[in-house]
What does this fold into?
Amino acid sequence: MQLTAPLVLPDTFEVAEENQYFGRYIFRPLEPGYGITIGNALRRVLLSSIEGYAIATLKIPNVAHEFSAVDGVIEDVVDIVLNLKKVALRPKYEDAPERLFIEIRGKEVFTAGDLAQQAPGYEVANPDLVIMHLDSSAVVQMELTVAKGRGYRLAEENKQLLRGRIDMNEIVLDTSFSPVLRVVPRVETILYKERADYEQLVLEIETKGNVTPREALESATHILVEHFTRLLHSHAQVPPPSPSPATPSKDELLRILLTPIQDVELGLTTTGFNSLRNAGINRLIDLVRLQPKDLEHYRGIGRESLEKLEAYLARLNLKLGMDVSAYEAYLTKK
It folds into this structure.
C-alpha cells in the first residue's frame, strides 16, 4: 500500500528580472526544505567556481616595481594596479590574445573603455572605470597579461603559475576571477495542491557584467549536475590510470623532433598554425626550442591553444623550452 504521494518536482522557472548585471529567478514548487538545500548549493558554486578573466601582470617601461611613479601620471603604480584589478574583461572569441599592448597618448583620463579599444579581442563590462589620470602631453605604454581562472588568487600563486612566461620586471597582480559579486537565495512558502508548506526559491544573482547572471546560473547548475552524476555512477568501475609513456631512445626522440608540424595534431587554429609556418617553425624541433611566452606573440595562439599544445607535447615526452642543443646539426637539414 502506497501511503505517500509522489515527490513533487519543480515545473516552473520564472525570470522576474534580468539584465547584464542582475537577475532574479523563481523556481517552484519545491518540497519543504528543498528551497534552502538547492539555494545554498547554487550560492556556494556561483561564488566560488564560475570561471572568469582578469589582468594578471603589468609591465611599464622603466618601472621596476609597484611602488614606482610614472612620468606624467597622477596615480602611482599601486593605484594603477588596484584599478586594473577591477577591469571586467570578456573575450570576444576563443583564443583571444592573452598579451595586450597598450599605448596611451593625448588623454587626460584613461578608462577601461579606452583599454578595450586597443584590445579588439575583448569586451569590457565596466568601460567607465577610471584607470589613471594623465598630463595631456604624457605618453604611457603598458603590456598586460590576461588570465582565466576561478575565485581569488594571490600574486605569489600567479608568479608560480606564470613562471617561464613573464619577465623579471613584470608586476604580478592579485586576481579576482569570479564574475559573480553577490548571490542571495530566499525561500518563500507557497500554496500548492491545497497545502501551504510547499516552497519556492527566489534567487538573486549580481555579476560584474562580463558574465550574465543567466550564464552564471547555467554554469553553476552544470557543475552540480556533473558532481551528482558521478555519485549516481559511483558503482561503476573506475578505469585504471593510463601508464606514463616510456622515455624514448635518442634515435626515437630525434625522429619525433624532426616530424613536420603539419603531420601532428597540435590543437591550433588555422590562424595559429599559419603563424608558426610563416615564422619558419616547420618541425617539432623548431617548436620546442621556444618558450611559452614566445608563443604568446603569435597571432591565433592564445591561452587555450597553448594549454592544448603543451598537453600534446607532454604525450611525446617533449616540452616547450627544452634543450635540443644535441640536435642542432639537424636544424639545417631538410
